Amino acid sequence: MIYSALAERIRNNKPVVLLTVIDGPNLGATLLASPNDSKLDTLGTLGDPELDRVAVRDALGELEAGRTSVRNYGPTGQVTPEDLTDTPIVRIFVESYSPPPQMIIFGAVDFTAALARVAKVLGYYVVVCDAREVFATKRRFPMADEVLVTWPTPVLAKLGDNLGARDAICILTHDPKFDVPAIQGALATKVGYIGVMGSRKTHAKRLERLAEVGISKPEDLDRLMSPIGIDIGSRTPEETAISICAEIIGKRVGRIVPSLSNSDGPIHK
Amino acid sequence: MREILGDIDRWRTQNKRIAIARVVDIEGSGPRDPGAAMAVNQDGEVCGSVSGGCVEGAVVAEALEILSTNSPGRLVKFGYSDDEAYAVGLTCGGVVHLFIAPLTW
User: Where are the domains of chain A?
Assistant: First the structure.
């Protein structure tokens, strides 16, 4: 019953947190907490209503932060050190299932298919968007979770508020009609990664066009990873996809990686 | 547990008894983070992983014992500081804490 509810939440990409007593009274007891907008559904018990209440409250905080951890309580939910002396300790494993990070790819090109494939391996929810309906088809991108035939502005108006540090926007069009609004829209979000494909020459020209629409602040331009990816001499769409994803991982965890956007010289030697 | 749901579902429809091992904590270097899970059914079939392949064999043995003794589950530690480190340890030198329990919920 709890398992089925957990599996359903995970499959539908809904946030859910599973609590399990791994030490102490009621070993193995399990409780599932599923937040739905302002309402909370719980299933199961850890053995005491007050312990359930306190542990679920803490678990929702862990879920919000995307953390999986072990927390200690007294058998009736005691948390302060003085309340925890002379009482058995209940150790609870708090397992957070956040919805997967999202990757929005603008441009339905060969690189898109390769990037979408690698992103799926990494666990992303992948959205492909292009205004040309001949190219943006589910048939060409069967690995994508969504294929949208539309322009960047409405897509980002709809999805942009939900994008955060874990998410990525990759702009693979080389078409100014498309990449300028995509960049504008991307910069208006809190997305953690914005990569823009193009040679150094293309990027220099793009910066001029961005300046024409008022995008010139260094803190905005610094967010644009262009040329996209890290310098591993990628040639094929698949190799390029690996180079882009490596850059995304490095940026997310705060490592310095050899980004093409931080270097000069030829991309292909 | 996301990646092992398919196998668990299949085993459940076959009415197999199942134990789930989950990484609850790691000390030092460990190949998989807390939350990594593997499942073992009564026939010894396995899905998922909790390390880089270093301790899975020992986990299967523990899981089968838990299933056969109707244990509510137990915490198991594998790693360098363990007495059995030379038998089943992590080559990376870390310690992994697992909770292995029957799927009765």
Answer: 2-97, 102-262
CA distances from B46 to A68, A153, B64, B98 (A): 23, 47, 11, 16
Q: For residue range A136-176, what is the model confidence (pLDDT) as tens digits?
A: 999 999 999 999 999 999 999 999 998 998 999 999 997 88
Q: Which residues of A touch B20 (CB under 8 A)?
A: none
How far lies B22's CA from each of A16, A24, A95, B26, in Å? Answer: 17, 17, 10, 11
Q: What number of residues does chain A have? A: 269
Task: Report the SS3 class of residue A144.
Answer: coil
Contact: A1, B5; criterion CB under 8 Å: no
The answer to whether residue B63 scores a pLDDT higher than 70 is yes
**In terms of CA atoms, which chain B residue is nearest residue A31?**
B105
Contacts of A20 in chain B (CB under 8 A): 22, 99, 101
Tracing tokens 């209940």 back to the chain, one arrives at A90
Domain extents in chain B:
2-102
Residue A249 forms contact with B (CB below 8 Å): no
**In a 3-state reduction of DSSP, which class is residue A256?**
coil
Task: State the complex-level ipTM.
Answer: 0.90
pTM (two decimals): 0.77
Query: DSSP 3-state assignment of A165?
Result: coil
Provide the CATH topology of domain A102-262. Answer: Rossmann fold (3.40.50)
